[in-house]
Amino acid sequence: MNYMCFIITLENVFMVPTIIMYIYKVDKFNKSKACPDVQRDEWMATFVRDSYSSGEIGFRENGCHIEDFLEKQADMIRYLKEQNVRLVQKVLILNNMVKAQSENTMQC
Prior knowledge:
mainly alpha, 2 domains, Transmembrane protein 192
């Protein structure tokens, strides 16, 4: 029983300083690098209130037509749905071909 206490104590003697050194190095590394873009934008927003005054996030050009954008987006969604249906049909056909071929090889 005493040898288990000795082993656990020995492990802790080596692990605790190693973990403390690791935490120190990671903290030093994180402080030396620039913040991620999201945090930097939030930090800048505290100084520049007029660009975020409307409560919207994102960029909008003057004269931008949202209706055109939404129409293009709807067209893209419609196209992708049609493409998805075609691909599903193709997968079903290929599955049937593989199934038929495997049945033919089993009969031989």
